[in-house]
Amino acid sequence: xxxxxxxxxxxxWFTENMPVAETELHFGSTFQLLVAVVLSAQCxxxxxxxxxxELFRHFPTPESMASAxxxxxxxxxxxxxxxxxxxxxxxxxxxxxxxxxxxxxxSDIDTLMTLPGVGRKTANVVASVVYNxxxxxxxxxxxxxxxxxxxxxxxxxxxxxxxxxxxIPEDKRxxxxxxxxxxxxxxxxAKSPRCTECGLGDWCREYSGK
Length: 210
Description:
By secondary structure, the chain is an all-alpha fold.
């Protein structure tokens, strides 16, 4: 199967069967989304959503978190993965937002990546979800599903991102990011993927062998 045909089939199926796909992280502002995505690294959205209501009740803005103590923030995020480093990053990025950006989260991906604890995936999520930029964040789900379907053989997240963006139209990239994440989270799981329940079998290289 030609790659263009595979992409067309996958995009067409998702467009018809999952026209609305959004982040499962809960947030009330761009800053809160940034915090939630930082916390979600190697951690489930479900766990992050259990932590952030109380965190945002105490520290809803960059200004409030910038002046927080390590102990106060750590106590609220201790149940996520790597709480020590994430606590340091949240306080430091909040301080940078206040000192360098007037408390506003920048929309530029390269600028976002200068913030403590913000890598390319996190920057792309914020840019896509809030600023509607035509980028695709590649996390473990997107990476796995892209390889299984045959959308990319890229060896790194950046290589997969580049190939996905080359084949997926700009107006579909924001939702495509969520298509692939949700599909990987609930259907094309890392262990025991639910292939018989998947509607993408005709275009999946690993399932169909095409």
